[in-house]
Fold this protein.
Amino acid sequence: MAERSFKKEVQQLRIGAGEEFRGEGILAVTKALLQCGVGYVAGYQGSPISHLMDVLADAQEILDELGVHFEASASEATAAATLAASVMYPIRGAVTWKSTVGTNVASDALANLASGGVTGGALIVVGEDYGEGSSIMQERTHAFAMKSQIWLLDPRPNLESMVKAVEDGFQLSEASNTPVILQLRIRGCHVHGRFIAKDNKRPPLSLGQALDNPVRDTSRIVLPPASFQHEHEKIQARWPAAIKYIKENKLNELFDGEHGELGLILQGGLYNGVIRALQLLGLADTFGNSRIPLYVMNVTYPVVDDEIRSFCEHKKAVLLIEEGQPNYIEQNLNTILRQAGMDTALAGKDVLPLAGEYTTAVIRDGLQAFLSKHSPGLLHEVADAPAASKPLMKEQVVQFQRKPTVVPAPSPSLANVVPPRPAGFCTGCPERPIFAALTLAQDKLGEHHIACDIGCHLFSILPPFNLGATTMGYGLGASSAAAFNVPSSKRPISIMGDGGFWHNGLSSGIGNAVFNKYDGVIIIVDNYYSAATGGQDVLSSRARNATKSTNNPIEAAVRGVGVKWLRTLDRTYDVAKVQATIEEALTTPEKGPKVIIAQSECMLNKQRRTKPIFAQAVKSGKRAVKERFGVDPDVCTGDHACIRLSGCPSLSVKESEDPLKEDPIAYVDNTCVGCGNCGEVAHAAVLCPSFYRADIIHNPNRWDLLKAGMRRSVIGFLQRRRQTQLARQAL
Amino acid sequence: MTMDPIKIAILAMGGQGGGVLADWIVDMAEHAGWWAQTTSVPGVAQRTGATIYYVELLPEDAIKAAGRPPVLAMMPTPGDVDIVLAAELMEGGRAIQRGLVTPDRTTLISSLHRSYAINEKAAHGNGIADPNKVIEAGKQAARRFYCLDLQALADEARSVISASMFGALAGASVLPFSREDFENTIRRAGLGVDASLDAFSRGWRAAETAPPSPAPVDLQRPIPEVPLTAASPRTQRLLDEVRAQFPVQAQAMMVVGLRRTLDFQDLRYADQYLGHMRDIHQLDRQFGGEAKAWALTCAAARYVAVAMAYDDVIRVADLKTRGTRDDRVRMEVQAKADQLVYATEYMHPRLDEICGILPARMGRYIENSPKLHRLLNPLFRKGRFLKSGTLSGFLMLYALSGMRRFRRVTLRHQVESQSMAQWLKLVSDTAHHDYDLAVEVVNCRRLVKGYSDTHERGNSKYQRLGLAASQLLGRPDAASQLRVLREAALADTHGDKLDLLMRDIVASPT
């Protein structure tokens, strides 16, 4: 079960020709796939394309109607390899993942796919996780496109252009027998917009029909001598075919402007930012009318030499706006201009930053630097033009060669006031107690080398836990400690999530550890879902899933590859037990990998599952007990050790009402889900007795009320008696 | 007709419903015949991190006139935002810091409430950021600044902050949509409509009636009043002495101190407190305290009480069995009248604590006997869950709390009394040479708090500070250096920074 349900959005996938689609970019792309007669879709979830997978998972009925096969792949490598179905058969296939991490995983299959080429359109939709909000290393998918010669689309970030790019992508792929990558940026994936839909199409040839009539062509298989042929074919046949298609169908767009002596060349994905930057300089309006001509590369690889030459002709200077590094396109353009003997000046990363996200402000500053160098008059002219002839804009044109002055430094400075807000574990997260236990174990046995992995558990690297030294990739927690398989007084510890485990960790981590007689400790965090990517099911999920096989325990897999020392903890909230198990793993004389499977259900998903059931039970008058935690303010001394070992969002601080206490005291707010971690931590770490669990009995039955009455009478009497004693000497 | 889009940035933390709010604005605008675009970068920010949602709105008429769809930006640009909505005060501060709020055009609507960041919560002392710095900055940065506790308004309506924020946005009258447009949007969303509309209307009213400029938050903690009369003649005597013999600056805290010692033990104990305070005040008078607003007496009024009313098992049992405590628990968990609430206490007394409530000699004997230690320790290795609402659980705690009458003979009391005597002697000795340093020595008691390990760590830091105080004695900057060390002691758990600084400060003669 995914974090978000798309049952409502899915209905939009049904709309027909002429109807308007309104929604998120990634949903529009999903709709576009169906409009293109795609035969199968596969992929691996991850921001920002998780929604594409989740929507398709919720749209099983529509897919069945259309005869489209959908598969949640085990990894991006699986997804990429799935495209092999389009090698021999004219069936359109699409796969999707988060890039560049997913592309890294997929690159073996991608390179093979690109070498042999495809018959049916093969589209790889990648969510480029770059810039603000990204959680991964900052690299470009562009390099993969270049090295394998896969064509790369980077459309303008509006729904119409993105949908068109899907159509163009399939056709380009078929016209040039080459897979195509459709690169979508984070904000493009999440942009809300609209486009006019077309009817969905059934795939002309179904996968079933293909299986019934198998085709085999050894010239498409990556083996010598065919593989040598492929390399030449890429250059001699597929590339020219692609260029021809791109030119004839005008995939790249030209927007004219009155100042023909200048030009801007940009990646399609940056278009909106460039227009806004031009607006801020008074050089464009809200509707994209620019005073400087634009050449928008919706196809960023390959570069169409002719189009570049003709755009640059008779121009004094052009500015290339290319986000990310290295500046592949800039190098390419320089070659084109040089070979053509053209003296048009090409500006790029000399006026724009070499690295980092190209925000509107960055582009604006770059444009300004470009203009001040190549056409200083333009900035003046805009500034001096009478108001009526100026494009409408709110901001004053900034002074020549000066940073914009519209942003006054706020005073007093907030630099030391506004606290950073690192991501952390959710309220009630079952992973938190594992890291509390690990912290306590280290307090006892000393600091250890800890190798982390990708997943929610990676938040252990951030405050308050500050645990972990490296993270090498999804499922690679155990393998990233492989080198430390040497005698030492301290064993290495590595972490791996259930998502990463099934992605590749079973073989790359556990299998490798068994094979190499690794002596370290591997903690597998099993929260029943691929939680970090949105709570999708994995092989070991406990849910019943109509279309997937779940309930395949990690324990069985780990034993299956030969692990002997294995402990399964089925309640991570038992901090003392987790701590004891970790300590045992670190100190046992037994050799070989020590694997601890720590399992409890992701609280976000659990709440989503159980909350409505609980509410329903209470509403229907059934007896139901809700647990939550609290802190006695008069017992808490305001040391905050509990917070340093927990970091639960619902465990906060507040001003003490006791004038004798200077520091704020801990308290548990109403978002508490009663997981019990804070109490267990207080127990295990011997912190303080201020935590209590409150059991709130809804709809108490008669027996409850009878007991309560008896208790009340005795307890109340004693309490009143003590109260009277105290009151006697009150002040 | 405007040709410029309205630009709105929403700053929120994961789980606050910033996305819902953005979607509402889009839905409202589209129903009112506007073109709307929104973008966001959720990513890992979903999980408690901070994130920005960005909305641009443009009337459809303008688009028809232009004959082509608009090109709207994917992210807010500093200096180019009309409305900033912040779902928490520091997120409002972040918007200001990022330059999204400018005096020429930006309406800043920020919730006043705080959701503390992990660093603020995890601080050893008080790590809470100063809200007034943000309010001050907002007043300067925004064209109009609404700073309202939208979380409280949402809570009152049993709804979520996105609803009260939507209301405040409507009440600020910065969007060309009617109140009906706003409310119909909530109705269309169809989830928890009544509660959302209630929160909406509270937010609306709050913004509508908001002052032109938000007032600063009063951070002064209320000073308890000094009463004129006490419940009995014997306590009246204590009160009279405080009022007659002690400086007015210290009286309020001394009343609190007397109340605490009474509550902790008995009248004789309160008398003892007053005795210590008499000595301190005498010292204060002797070394020129009057000119320094009786700093020594004031500081000691708090810490002598804290030191005397140490946290032991008896005290905890006492606090957990009071009737007022049951009421507080019910209130805190928002239990309804027809619901039953039972508390389960998480207690983990160690052998040390148990020895602490034994008669001093017996306690010491066990502590010093490795054999007994080995024998008894396993009994206290695990934490205990105690149901204080059941008869067995309550009676056990009640009996434990009744042991207060034997407290004076316990080992813990002996240890605490000795520690306090040493501390008071250090204060006295120091005051003879350096008044300001003596005040700092009093304040160092702040480190001693908590239970078990926490208490030991705090105590160890406090001991180190005491040592530093005696080493610093005679230096002109002794007091200020001790203050620096005391703050350093709050920087980490084990006092690593304190050790580092101590080496530097104590080693370097000025």
User: Anything to note?
Assistant: The domain at 254-389 of chain A is CATH 3.40.50.920 (Rossmann fold). Chain A has four domains: 21-206+215-248, 254-389, 432-605, 623-699. Residues 475 and 501 of chain A are 5 Å apart (CA to CA).
